[in-house]
Amino acid sequence: MDLPVMPPVAPMLAKSAARVPPGMLYEPKWDGFRAIVFRDGDEVELGSRSGKPLTRYFPEVVAAVREHLPPRCVLDGEIVIARGGRLDFDALLERIHPADSRVRHLAEVTPASLVAFDLLALGGSSLMDTPQLERRRALERALHDAAAPVHVTSASEDLELAQEWFEQFEGAGLDGVVAKPPDLPYQPGARVMVKVKHERTADCVVAGLRPHKSGPVLGSLLLGLHDANGRLQHVGVCASFPMARRKALMEELAPLRMESVAGHPWQDWASEEAQAAGRLPGGPSRWTGKKDLSWVPLRPERVVEVAYDHMQGDRFRHTAQFRRWRPDRDPSSCTYAQLEEPVRYDLARVLSGG
């Protein structure tokens, strides 16, 4: 491979904001695997955000790159899977599998698509120092004849339209809006864009904790919600506390600590059969490897209000944020019924620029 921009390249990142800022180039925020795509003739590499290649996990995307992208180019985009008219992040996670036969089977039954949103190089020229708006126009020209499963994301300088995307596209599984300064050069690894994501709150049962890796202070709170059968399901964690707060929380929760998991709603957390039957903490994952997933059980008597952006199936997609304790709430009242369901939106319309 001999390109003007060579792998690995760390993707340009975004910092969070509460509102969509004016005077920017706006795009929908896709919920998939970020990928820097390198093509030099038949040679194709899909680079992940961490720098590790994704190429072997998405053979159908590699084939689509060869069919639809210019012979020599580097672009920034997102690998996504659509299922049931929505983006399906769980289906993406299933693709990270060591068995090539499994990967190729899933490529047929749950094929992925590539959504392009930036162009870093074309032919023998690097576009890294080219302003964002010019790179966008070059991307549109370069992929003018591209067809599914390769898509060019929608983009607009219209703030009002960006607000509509933010309100409507969540129903198709997208998770917000990205705003880019029009004169921005491509800056690998730098948080120079802006992302605006949905935030909601939920009251959850605190049923366990994990100590922090640095010592005997709180690392994260383990959160639970009751399902329709009254069973407490593990829905995610609440973390990102200042160190002083971690120490105080460890002391505050000490009276709730149980000597063992016996009698706890998640007492079978180490059982593969129990993991398959419900959501429990510490489940096996190809992403966690040998990471210690043990936890400290707490009597499920306290309720916390947390902020979250959206759900991935029956759990929080990202780490939830602590808002306040809710001593007025009974743990048994913390159910899935409180969660807001976004209005459905046709993903096909989003992919087609509608």
From TrEMBL:
Keywords: Ligase. PANTHER family: DNA LIGASE 1, DNA LIGASE 1/3 FAMILY MEMBER. SUPFAM superfamilies: DNA ligase/mRNA capping enzyme, catalytic domain, Nucleic acid-binding proteins. It catalyses: ATP + (deoxyribonucleotide)n-3'-hydroxyl + 5'-phospho-(deoxyribonucleotide)m = (deoxyribonucleotide)n+m + AMP + diphosphate. This is DNA ligase (ATP). It is an enzyme of class 6 (ligase). InterPro entries: Adenylation_LigC-like, ATP-dep_DNA_ligase, DNA_ligase_ATP-dep_C, DNA_ligase_ATP-dep_cent, DNA_ligase_ATP-dep_CS, NA-bd_OB-fold, OBF_LigC-like. Its EC number is 6.5.1.1. It comes from the Bacteria. GO terms for biological process: DNA recombination; DNA repair. Belongs to the ATP-dependent DNA ligase family. The keyword Transcription regulation does not apply. It holds the Pfam family DNA_ligase_A_M. Transmembrane segments: none annotated. GO terms for molecular function: ATP binding; DNA ligase (ATP) activity. The keyword Ligase applies. Residues 114-247 form the ATP-dependent DNA ligase family profile domain.
